[in-house]
């Protein structure tokens, strides 16, 4: 199996090393793993692509590249330049330092990479590690992802629902904020929404009198509704959420059409 890996935390992020190990285990001795990751951290860029200026790409080693662009740019670089149009069997994005559950999904560059792969009909999985008091002080805070990642990816490859007539399915996986041995299992659940989730602004005045704004996130140790991703993560379960790039509110189409008649 040929696997392309990327992330949004940057080429030197510890989570990418965890993902490399996961990918190598999944690819097997006869497979190969290619890395194209951002040269610098790109957290929060979502599905951004840099089409107004060129993206520099550098080779760091065999099948290992860094691109000065977003995670989606890295997927494009991997598919059409580094791998020379020979599509991989799978794209893995992560392992993100921090959860991409609930409203975090819409901001996440980790998710953006998986979305870009899915738009090119390449199977893709985004993986993120929730952090909290039970794993933040561990020697390896990514322990849950490291111990359970490869087995879960294999299960999704073999038994997941892939494809789609229009938009391709991809998967969002979040590992709970616990040690590896504390993982209770896996739940397939929808994306949730934390009360008062999202980002806000904190103003700051520099010593020279100029005004700056810091973007601040909301509390992450908050449940996101019954049987949804952040809720099961906080209860010790890995969440698996099938997703597509289609943002249409299909349940409202008929109603809105009637309202506009």
From TrEMBL:
SUPFAM superfamilies: SurE-like. A divalent metal cation binds at residues 8-9, 43, 96. Binds 1 divalent metal cation per subunit. Keywords: Cytoplasm, Hydrolase, Metal-binding, Nucleotide-binding. The keyword Metal-binding applies. GO terms for cellular component: cytoplasm. It is found in: Cytoplasm. It is an enzyme of class 3 (hydrolase). Its EC number is 3.1.3.5. GO terms for molecular function: 3'-nucleotidase activity; 5'-nucleotidase activity; exopolyphosphatase activity; metal ion binding; nucleotide binding. Its main location: cytoplasm. Residues 3-194 form the Survival protein SurE-like phosphatase/nucleotidase domain. It catalyses: a ribonucleoside 5'-phosphate + H2O = a ribonucleoside + phosphate. InterPro entries: SurE, SurE-like_Pase/nucleotidase, SurE-like_sf. Its cofactor is a divalent metal cation. Nucleotidase that shows phosphatase activity on nucleoside 5'-monophosphates. Belongs to the SurE nucleotidase family. This is 5'-nucleotidase SurE. It comes from Litoreibacter roseus.
């Amino acid at each position: 199996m040929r696997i392309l890996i990327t992330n949004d935390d940057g080429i030197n992020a510890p989570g990418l090393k965890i993902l490399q190990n996961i990918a190598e285990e999944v690819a097997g001795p006869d497979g190969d793993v290619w890395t194209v990751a951002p040269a610098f951290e790109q957290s929060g860029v979502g599905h951004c692509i840099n089409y107004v200026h060129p993206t520099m790409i550098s080779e760091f080693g065999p099948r290992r590249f860094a691109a000065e662009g977003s995670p989606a740019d890295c997927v494009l670089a991997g598919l059409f330049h580094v791998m020379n149009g020979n599509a991989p069997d799978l794209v893995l994005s992560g392992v993100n330092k921090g959860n991409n559950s609930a409203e975090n999904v819409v901001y996440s560059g980790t998710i953006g990479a998986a979305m870009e792969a899915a738009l090119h009909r390449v199977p893709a999985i985004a993986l993120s590690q929730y952090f909290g008091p039970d794993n933040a002080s561990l020697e390896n805070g990514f322990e849950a992802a490291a111990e359970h990642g490869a087995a879960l990816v294999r299960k999704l490859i073999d038994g997941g629902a892939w494809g789609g007539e229009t938009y391709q399915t991809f998967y969002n996986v979040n590992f709970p904020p616990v040690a590896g041995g504390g993982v209770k299992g896996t739940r397939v659940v929808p994306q949730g929404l934390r009360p008062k989730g999202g980002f806000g602004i904190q103003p700051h005045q520099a010593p020279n009198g100029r005004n700056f704004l810091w973007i601040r996130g909301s509390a992450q140790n908050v449940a996101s509704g019954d049987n949804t991703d952040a809720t099961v993560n906080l209860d010790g379960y890995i969440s698996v959420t099938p997703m597509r790039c289609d943002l249409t509110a299909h349940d409202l189409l008929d109603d809105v059409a009637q309202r506009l008649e």
